[in-house]
Known about the structure:
Blueprint: E1 2-5, E2 12-15, H1 33-51, H2 62-91
Antiparallel strand pairs: 1-2
Zinc ion is lined by residues 6, 8-9, 11, 23, 25-26, 28.
Amino acid sequence: MGEKKCPHCGKWSDWNQNLTDTCQHCGKPLGGKDLEFQEKRAAQEKAREEQWIFYIKETDSDFVKGMKKTGNFFYTIYISIITFIAWLIAALPG
Ligand SMILES: [Zn+2]
């Protein structure tokens, strides 16, 4: 428990070190720039996840979901094999 100067109204407000705590005076989040930054990063991460070819969306049909799950499964195997071959080449003498 501490106090933080509200970035919106400039008054001091109690807060629990939590960026989403709101100001006692104006009701806006006390996080200010830090919170903005955190939200921006979360949004970027979400966008990157959704760009993933096998990302399963709520709106996908069962067929598409099944295809994506299968694709993701084989992609994982594919990466494992590539990693194994890379290791094998590295482990071979000469
Ligand atoms: Zn405020």
